[in-house]
Amino acid sequence: MKMITALVRPSKVDAVKDALVSLNIIGMTVSDVRGFGRQKGQIERYRGNEFTVDFLQKTKIVVVVDDSKVEAAITAITEVARTGEIGDGKIFVTAVETAIRIRTGDRGESAL
C-alpha cells in the first residue's frame, strides 16, 4: 500500500476527487493548507498598495491505495490538477506498512 499526498490548487479539488472516484479509489482526507514553493508567494495590490502574500492557499488530499493503483492515481491527479502555471502543486508517495479499520479490526488492503 502507498499513501499519496497531493498538494493542489483549491479550485482543482473537485476534479481530483472525481478523477480518483472514477478509478474506484474511494476514501480521502482533504485539508485546507497554506505554503509556498519556488514562487515564494505573490505580490497583491489592494487600494493602490502592494503587499506580499508569503503563504498561498493549497488543498492537501491524502489517499491510501493498493500498489497496483498508484501510477493510475498519480496520472489522474496530474492530468486534472495541471494548469501549466507555477504553483500547480506537488505529489508525494510514501509506503504504508499497514492500515487498520477501527470499527471492524480489518487489517491491510481490506481496511481500505
Question: What does this protein structure show overall?
Answer:
The protein is of the alpha+beta class. The protein has a single domain, classed as Alpha-Beta Plaits, CATH 3.30.70.120. 20% of the residues lie in helices and 37% in strands. The chain has helices at 13-22, 70-81; strands at 2-8, 29-35, 42-46, 49-53, 56-65, 89-95. The strands form two sheets. It has a four-stranded antiparallel β-sheet, covered by helices on one side. A two-stranded antiparallel ribbon has the order 3-4. The longest helix has 12 residues, at 70-81. The radius of gyration is 17 Å and the shape is elongated.
Summarize this structure briefly.
Helix content is 20%, strand content 37%. It is an alpha+beta fold. Strands 2-5-1-6 form a 4-stranded antiparallel sheet, with helices on one face. It has a two-stranded antiparallel sheet with strand order 3-4.
Specify the overall morphology.
elongated
CATH architecture descriptor name: 2-Layer Sandwich
Distance between the termini: 10 Å
Count of all domains: 1
String of helices and strands:
EHEEEEHE
Q: Just give the CATH class.
A: Alpha Beta
What fraction of the residues are assigned to beta strands by DSSP? 35-45%
Question: Helical proportion?
Answer: 10-25%
CATH topology-level name: Alpha-Beta Plaits
Q: What is the spatial order of strands in the main beta sheet?
A: 2-5-1-6
Please outline the major beta sheet: 4 strands, antiparallel
The count of helical stretches stands at 2
